[in-house]
Amino acid sequence: MTWLAWRQFRTQALVALGLLAAFAALVLVTGAHLHDGYDAVGGARCEARNDCPLLYGLDGVLADLLGPALLAIPALLGMFWGAPLLARELEGGTYRLAWTQSVTRRRWLLTKVALVGVAALAVAGLASWLVSWWFAPLDAVNMNRFDPSVFGERGVVAIGYAGFAFALGVAAGALTRRMLTAMAATLLGFVTARIAFTSWVRPHLLASRHLLTPLTLGKSVGFRESPSGISVFTGFPPLPNGWGISAALVDRSHHALSAAQLHRVLVRTCPTIAAGLPQYPGAGNASGGLTDGDFQSCLQALSHHLQLLVAYQPPSHYWPLQALETAIFLAAALALVGAAAWRLGA
């Protein structure tokens, strides 16, 4: 049965091996040039001197393509390896030959899934390692490893995504028994799961830490009109390699302020703004007669009454979050394989 499964899969495997070899050669050659360039200017320390080399030509193109390519690899594995694995045989009826040759349904299913599934994990793992290595100098400078567009393109999570996408394709094939239908369902299900997990699950996998900072350290601090009066809006303070979850204005007793309380503070400290000036998108962009100096003076006055309470994930949580997310997607993959086995009566 193992030899039969390999013969059915060998064309796909050889094509994938050739593409992966070409991908690896491109990444290794260009990545060596990129690493040498950053080492020559002192690595991540060049950011402090503002003399980091810019990306031009092929390196710049690859910087835009490698991340999305790694996101696409698990989906492609699920669509073209996972979905046809069972659906093609169930649709064509060729599974009956194996089932009548003293091969149990369970052995038939597990042999095919194990062989192709391990190959899918290996492809995703190697591609993830190559992309993570290529981007290492840029990540050291940008210090934004938790950014959603970066987190899913580095580390080990691609292995979990590949396992989940492959198993989703297997389950879709067992359920629909139609290859094209299974491929479409795999793509839709995988994209939906990724978006939902990134938005609603990942922020709650580990308990966040809290940080109190002065109001003036927030990014894009400004004022805007609201139904209850003039309010303050602000972004996260600098969190190198950290992940800001939420930011709230609190008083010196660390209590959140209601809209009415905040308005009263504004009336006392910034009467010109509280009088109802138009929206101010940020420092230096104020209008309606408010100068930049007045704006900064107002922020300094408010900082005596208000602080920014930030919930965030520290840099030390990066690898635990990577491991947790990978484990969750692999566990979901096992559940989907179990569902496929139940559907086939294996």
Overview of this structure, please?
The chain is mainly α and 346 residues long. Helices cover 64% and strands 10% of the residues. The protein is built from twelve helices and five strands. A three-stranded antiparallel beta sheet has the order 1-5-4, with no helix packed on it. Strands 2-3 form a two-stranded antiparallel ribbon. The two termini are 16 Å apart.
- As a percent range, the share of strand residues is 5-15%
**What sequence of helices (H) and strands (E) makes up the elements?**
HHHHHHHHEEEEHHHEH
The parts where pLDDT drops under 50 for at least 5 residues are 277-289
Q: Structural class of the helix and strand makeup?
A: mainly alpha
- C-alpha termini separation: 16 Å
What's the mean pLDDT score?
84
The gross shape turns out to be elongated
Strand order of the largest sheet: 1-5-4
Number of helices: 12
Q: How many E-type strands? A: 5
Q: Which value, in Å, is the CA radius of gyration? A: 27 Å
* Helix content bin: 55-70%
The major beta sheet can be summarized as:
3 strands, antiparallel
